[in-house]
Predict the structure.
Amino acid sequence: MEGILPFKKDNYLKISTLLICIFSVFALILNLEGSNCIIQINSSPLISYSSNENGEVSNNSDFMNQQAAEEQQEPQLQQQDAQSQETLMQQSYELRKYCFLVTNLYVYSLFGVIIGFIILVLWYIRYKKIWSGKKSGGPTN
């Protein structure tokens, strides 16, 4: 019985240390990637644009709105603007989807670290009981 007990005790320590190390590395990498995602989303050109009642994309500044209303734009330019805006919207959607995935994986990696610490605490409690029983001269089988 004593030969099996240290093996189980060491497995708790090995598993908890492995979980903590692996998920800590994942959390660090995903945290950096999440920061990059936030920077990319904030620097997205779609942030400074909004659509008006006709579905046309215009800049938020009043001066640009007045100037655009006064000038007649060619249909080809409007079509190019609409296509480029649609492309930007698609890229923005893909970026937000990727960032959502990165954020969720980051949270799950933190859960992995927490589980590793819980297993480490269980190992310590069992280790403490085993060694306190041997030191006090408790019953042996």
About this structure: Strands lie at 49-51, 57-59. Confidence is low (pLDDT under 50) at residues 47-53, 57-61. The helical segments are 4-42, 62-70, 75-135.
